[in-house]
Specification:
By secondary structure, the chain is α+β, with helices and mostly antiparallel strands. The protein folds into 2 domains: 1-106, Peroxidase, domain 1, CATH 1.10.520; 107-176, no CATH class. Helix content is 60%, strand content 15%. The protein is built from 8 helices and 4 strands, in the order H-H-H-H-H-H-E-H-E-E-E-H. The protein has helices at residues 2-19, 26-39, 42-49, 55-66, 72-83, 90-104, 120-134, 165-175, and strands spanning 108-114, 138-144, 151-156, 159-164. It has a 4-stranded mixed sheet with strand order 2-1-3-4. A hairpin with a 2-residue loop joins strand 3 (151-156) and strand 4 (159-164). The radius of gyration is 18 Å and the shape is globular. The N and C termini lie far apart (48 Å). The model has no long low-confidence stretch (mean pLDDT 85).
């Protein structure tokens, strides 16, 4: 049931973004950044999930926190999800929006975990390397994950390429 609910929200949000002229992945990227920011703040996550806080107040919190960062349609989309009491599903909805958007453009999504943000040229080189490796056009979803210490962990469908420092240190430890 949850999968259908997530799919429904994702399709609706993507349609909203397309109707507002946001194409080419900008909406998906902004939505993912907002979802990640909310997920990383326990206080914000808890406040937005409280049904005792009126929906209008939760929406105002979202708009205040986001300020002028994302496009108006991204703020409205997040505000709508929060008002519906689905802030806990925002990350899953954002992931599904990314998948649907990429599929519409004939691409697959590669989730890349990095300890630090990647520069645009690094993302382009990585996308090119993944395309050469998989034979598929690839869109990157970069997730900042300090626990990997350095390097990258990339997942495309069910294939994982682990080049993280944490894994390499573990391999060295096992070798000794």
């Amino acid at each position: 049931m949850a999968g259908k609910l997530i799919d429904g929200y994702a399709e609706a949000l993507l349609s909203l973004a397309e109707a507002e002229g946001m194409t080419g992945g900008q909406f998906e990227s902004e939505l993912a950044q907002v979802a990640q920011a909310i997920a990383s703040s326990e206080e914000l996550r808890t406040t937005l999930a409280q049904t005792s806080v009126p929906a209008g107040r939760r929406q105002q919190i979202v708009e205040d926190v986001l300020g002028g960062f994302p496009a108006r349609v991204t703020t409205a989309a997040v505000s709508m999800v929060v008002a519906a009491g689905r802030s806990g599903d925002l990350s899953a909805i954002a992931d599904r929006v990314i998948e649907l958007g990429a599929a519409k453009r004939g691409r697959v999504v590669a989730e890349v975990r990095s300890a630090i943000p990647l520069e645009p040229e690094q993302e382009q080189r990585l996308a090119s390397a993944l395309k050469a490796s998989t034979g598929k056009d690839v869109e990157l979803k970069v997730v900042i994950d300090p626990t990997i210490m350095g390097g990258l962990v990339t997942q495309i469908d069910d294939q994982i390429i682990d080049g993280s420092v944490r894994t390499r240190l573990g391999q060295l430890r096992d070798a000794f």
